[in-house]
Amino acid sequence: MKTPADDDNHLRYAEYVLGVLDADARAAVAHEVQTTEAAASAVALWQQRLMPLTEEVAQVEPPAYVWARIHHALHLNAPARGRPRQGLWNNLPLWHWLGIGASAVAVALLVVVTIPRTAPPAPTSTASPGYMVATIQQDNGVIGWTATMDPKNARMVVVPASPTAFARGRAPELWLIPPGAKPISVGMITPDKPTTLTLDPALVAQLGPKAALAVSVEPIGGSPTGQPTGPVIAKGAISGVPEARARPRKTAGTGFGSGATTAMLNASDRSGVQHKATTETDYRS
Predict the structure, then answer these.
(1) pLDDT number for residue 241
(2) CB-side exposure of 146: number of CA atoms within 13 Å?
(3) What is the pLDDT of residue 232?
(4) What is the mean pLDDT of each run of 10 residues along the chain (285 residues)?
(5) Which domains does the chain possess?
(6) If I label 108, which of 115, 189, 206, 230 is the partner at 20 to 30 A Cα–Cα?
(7) Helix crossing, 4-18 with 23-35: angle to 10°?
(8) pLDDT value of residue 68
């Protein structure tokens, strides 16, 4: 029987994929993903459900009066009294309200995904999106990152599962290791927030269940040789996303069970190089 606690867990997994949980809640979900198959499967399913939303939401430039109202409501135009005027980047009230707005947008996306809809007509023979996932584990068994691959749109989203500290001037670089071939650089990833990478067609052709992903520690900007020069700190095999089991539609929201589990295998370290994919997110040292 489905309970309110199950719904809460489902929302936590979705918020984990969206990256809107605080540090403590995110660490708790990461631990569940590492220790329970149901949590790992649920996170993979939410990654499959939420990734297509980025294709449907077009960028909209806010009208000028919106910023004017924000400035007026937060008294940003009033001169500071008794202390130097704060710059925009150091204005805590502004970022506080912007953070609330971002959370509201995330909740709205969840509502769009979970509300019941009329079942569409049975599809004809249409190919599935073919999403792939990988759980990239550190040597101590802790999950460092989760990666969701969209070969159709040549895209990969990498989400950190646990905080990892790096020395000054060093950063994580993601590598694809095809079976029996040299590593191919996918791009630099950030250790504390999701990273979206655009994949070269040649790299997309190498994706598959026999390939693996690995993370090495490299200088800021990437390996100078095109090959891993620092230690490999995490690795994981690539697998297909488990499909949700068919269930009768309910009138108050939708749910999902544990489903099939994501295969989590350890991949051997290999050396070598290919070309890099371009990174859509800016990396801050």
Answers:
(1) 61
(2) 31
(3) 93
(4) 56 86 88 89 87 70 76 70 58 70 73 64 49 90 91 92 85 93 92 91 90 93 92 91 46 37 37 39 41
(5) 64-112 (no CATH), 129-240 (2.60.40)
(6) 189
(7) 110
(8) 77
* Close Cβ partners of 161 (under 8 Å, ≥ 6 residues apart): 30, 33, 34, 143, 144, 145, 146
- What residues have CB less than 8 Å from 32, skipping those under 6 apart? 39
Which phi and psi (to 5°) does residue 236 adopt?
A: -170, 150
| pLDDT for residue 185 | 94
Q: What is the pLDDT of residue 82?
A: 53
- Phi, psi (degrees; rounded to nearest 5) at 158: -115, 120
The predicted pLDDT at position 279 comes to 41
Burial class (CB in 10 A: 0-12, 13-18, 19+), 199: buried
Nearest to 135 by CA among 262, 277, 270, 268: 262
H or E element: which one contains 145?
A: strand 143-150
Pairing of strands 184-188, 155-160: unpaired
Q: Name the residue among 226, 247, 15 with its Cα closest to residue 108.
A: 15
Which H helix or E strand runs over 101?
helix 92-114
Contacts of 237 (CB under 8 A, 6+ apart): 134, 209, 211, 212, 263, 264, 265, 266, 267
